[in-house]
Amino acid sequence: MALIKKPVTGMKDILPSEMQLRDYCIGVIKKTYAEFGFTSIETPCVESLANLNSKQGGENEKLIFKVMKRGEKLNLETAKEENDLTDSGLRYDLTVPLVRFYANHASELPSPFKALQMGNVWRADRPQKGRYRQFMQCDIDILGEATNLAEIELILATTTTLGRLGFKDFKIRINERRILKAMAAYSGFPEESYDDVFITLDKMDKIGIDGVSEELEKEGFERSSIDKYLDLFRSVEGKTDISGLKIIADKLGDFLDTEVRESLEEIITSVDATKTAQFEMVFDPTLVRGMSYYTGTIFEVSMPQYGGSCGGGGRYDKMVGKFLGQDTPACGFSIGFERIIMIMMDEGFKIPGEGKRKAYLIEKGIKGERLSEIISEAQKERLEGNQVLVVRMNKNKKFQKQQLSEQGYEDVKEFYLNPLN
Taking the complete model, does pTM exceed 0.85, yes or no? Predict the structure, then answer.
C-alpha cells in the first residue's frame, strides 16, 4: 500500500518561497527585539499536563494534543482513566512554558528579565485559512517590572518590528482588565458573573451593541444593569483616544482606582510621543482578550487588510506566583506570526536588499578544469553578494528557464561544451 504523501490534517508543508520570507521575517524580528534588550530563550515543546491544565489558558486547554506515557509508566492493561495513559502534552502557547522556565531559573536570570521566544505551538483546533494545528508564535515578555514601563517597551518594540516589516496604518487597541471589572461593578452585575458578561462583550464587533444587549438578557441579567452597562459604551462611540478613557473614568468615579486611569493614559501618550512606525493607539473599552490570566493592561494589533487581530498580549502578574508561591509582575506581547506571513504573501511582498539572483546552467558533459572555472566564476559572484544557483542544463531548457524565472532568478547564464553554441 502506498504511503500517504499529504501532511496530517491541520499541518502544512512550507515551500521554499514562503520559507525564504519566514527566515527574513525571523531575522528582522530578532534583530529589532535585540535592540530593545530582549534575549532569546527556548523551552521544550512538551510540557506537563498539570501545567497546561492549570486554568490559565482559557479555551486552549480544551485543544491540547496529549502525549501518552512512555516505557514502564504506560500500562494499558491496568489503565482505567485518561490520567493513567497521559502525563504531558504539546504546548498550546509560549506563555505557560515561559513562566515555568522563569520559575525554574529565576536565581540565574536578571531582573527585570526581557525574554524573546519563537517556536511552534500545537492546538487541536478546526483548521481554516490562516489557522493551523501547528503554527509559529513569536512572544516578547518582561518579568519583574511592575510599572507601565513594561507595557510601553513591549508596544514600542512590537510596533517598530511591524513597521520594519512594511506594515503601516494599523491600530493598537488597548484596554485594562480593571476597567472592565469596574464597568461591570458600576452597572450592578454580580461579581461572580463578570466572566460571563465579558464573554458576551467580546462579541461586540460581530453582533453589535444590540446583539450584546439581547444575549445578556437571555442569560438572565437585570434589564437595568444591561442598560446602564451599554450606556457606558454608547457614551464613547467615535472617541478612540484619551478623551474616551476620561469619559469612562469620570462616569465610573470611585469604582475605578485613579492610578489605573493615569497609568493607561501614560502608556498611550508615551507611545504616541516616541513611536517610529505609522500606527494609531486606540482606547477600546470593548477589548476583552480571552485568557483568564490577564490582570491589568491588555492590547491587540488590528490590521485593516486582515480584518482581525494580528497579535496581542497584556499583563499577567499572578501567573508566576502559581509556580513560585509569590507573585512576580509580568507582561507580554505576541505577534501573530502566521497571519503576518499570510498577509505579506497575499500582497506579494518582496524581500528588500537581496543581491541579484543568477542561475548558471551547465551543459551535461562539462567537467574537469572547465567545470572548476565556471564554479570559480560563481564563487566570485557570491562574494559580491549575489545569489548564484549552479545546476546542470535539462533537456527541456525552455521549461527549466521558465521555472527559474518564477523562482526569482533574473539572469540565466548558459555554459556549453562548445562555447560557440
Answer: yes
